[in-house]
């Protein structure tokens, strides 16, 4: 079966619910591209996702402002035990799948396995979350530069991004 | 996410997206994209299927090495184990993507964001 045409599907759904203005999705003719500057086996990998993963807190304090402010990018130590992490993301196909296995959307362990095999040199100390929003301007002016700072701060060479 | 990938690539970082919304990602235009034709939420493989996740993440690493030009899409050659019925239902009136209570929370957050913006704090 062909893949889902989400843009059409979402437009039709919201029109049917009485919303008059359709969302205008980002579209560019020009796409940037840089090749690897050195072999992958010598590269440091970093990881960004929109899975809104947080560390469970015993006090049930709830997520911090940094974790909920739209357009912000926050970091969590990659070494955090998986059973201490959970996803706050609500925008996923809850009828067909679950967010119970972190590695199915934030492949921390899988990437560690590849690092151990020597597929790449290593990974950054942290992984990063992009607090997604509908404002493309906010993504361009806040989230994107913030993500770039994370790459520089952690001396990443290549980037994997997993939108949920 | 696509906008962030483009920005990082523009500043010299090779990027690869592993995602499930092919039309949205390709409409935006990104350097490298591993397309997993799975329900939203499991781009890196079915939950608790370690071998499948290993394979999909491996494809992303391969694409970092093999892509020679932008808009490089690699389709994961795996089908969702439970079949494709989910495709007919996602984002339909019959099965709203967000259940009513979640939708309400989402609308409240959206409203709070509008106020934040109007107050010049955004």
Word description of this protein:
Chain A is of the alpha/beta class. In chain A, 26% of the residues lie in helices and 18% in strands. Chain A has one domain. Chain A is built from four helices and seven strands. In chain A, the strands form two sheets. In chain A, strands 1, 3, 5, 6 and 7 form a five-stranded mixed sheet that branches. Chain A has a two-stranded antiparallel sheet with strand order 2-4. Chain A starts with 5 loop residues before the first helix and ends with a strand. Chain B contains five helices and three strands; from the N terminus they run αβαβαβαα. Chain B has two domains: 2-82, no CATH class; 91-122. In chain B, β2, α3 and β3 form a beta-alpha-beta unit. The model of chain B has no long low-confidence stretch (mean pLDDT 92). Chain B starts with a helix and ends with a helix. Chain B has 122 residues and is mainly alpha-helical. The chains are: A alpha/beta (164), B mainly alpha (122). At the A-B interface, α1, α3, α4 and β7 of A face α1, β1, α2, α3 and α4 of B. β7 of chain A pairs parallel with β1 of chain B.
């Amino acid at each position: 079966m062909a893949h889902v045409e989400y843009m059409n599907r979402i437009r039709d759904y919201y029109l049917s619910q009485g919303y008059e203005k359709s969302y205008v999705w980002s579209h560019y003719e020009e796409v940037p591209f840089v090749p690897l500057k050195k072999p992958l086996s010598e590269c440091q990998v970093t990881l960004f996702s929109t899975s809104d993963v947080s560390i469970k807190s015993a006090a049930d304090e709830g997520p911090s402002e940094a974790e909920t402010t739209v357009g912000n990018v926050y970091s969590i130590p990659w070494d955090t035990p998986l059973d201490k992490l959970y996803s706050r993301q609500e925008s996923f196909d809850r009828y067909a799948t679950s967010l119970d296995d972190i590695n199915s959307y934030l492949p921390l362990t899988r990437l560690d396995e590849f690092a151990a095999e020597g597929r790449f040199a290593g990974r950054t100390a942290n992984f990063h979350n992009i607090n997604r929003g509908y404002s493309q301007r906010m993504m361009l002016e806040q989230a994107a530069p913030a993500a770039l700072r994370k790459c520089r701060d952690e001396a990443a060479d290549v980037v994997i991004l997993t939108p949920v | 996410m696509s906008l962030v990938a483009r920005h990082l690539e523009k500043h010299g970082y090779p990027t690869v997206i592993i995602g499930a919304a092919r039309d949205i990602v390709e409409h935006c235009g990104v350097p490298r994209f591993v397309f997993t034709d799975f329900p939203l939420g499991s781009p890196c493989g079915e939950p608790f299927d370690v071998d499948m996740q290993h394979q999909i993440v491996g494809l992303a690493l391969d694409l970092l090495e093999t892509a020679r030009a932008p808009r490089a899409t690699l389709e994961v050659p795996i089908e969702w184990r439970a079949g494709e019925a989910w495709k007919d239902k996602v984002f339909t009136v019959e099965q709203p993507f967000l259940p009513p209570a979640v939708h309400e929370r989402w609308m409240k957050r959206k409203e709070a964001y509008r106020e934040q913006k109007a107050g010049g704090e955004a």
